[in-house]
Amino acid sequence: MDFYTILDQVIDVLRQRQRVTYRALKRQFNFDDDYLEDVKAELIQGQRLAMDEEGAVLVWTGETGTPAPAAAAPTATPAQAPLAYTPAHLAEKIVTARPR
Q1: Given this model, what pLDDT does residue 84 score?
Q2: pTM for the full predicted model
């Protein structure tokens, strides 16, 4: 797996648990020391989603309940039909005011 795919998995674990020891991350993801340092740097300095606590714990500082970053390119939001966002009483006035 590539680095960002694994990083997204780490973010999911950290968001769910809020606090994770570096030892647990090494065990869970089979990280060596250098890989763990890269993950820490990306989360703490690169994306500012976590902070280090006493050199032993990674603490989530991102928003709670936010969705994980999407791996795919964002899709365009479909346009809303006018009746979907026009209040019924205004739609009625618009329709009745039009000449036939």
Answers
A1: 59
A2: 0.62
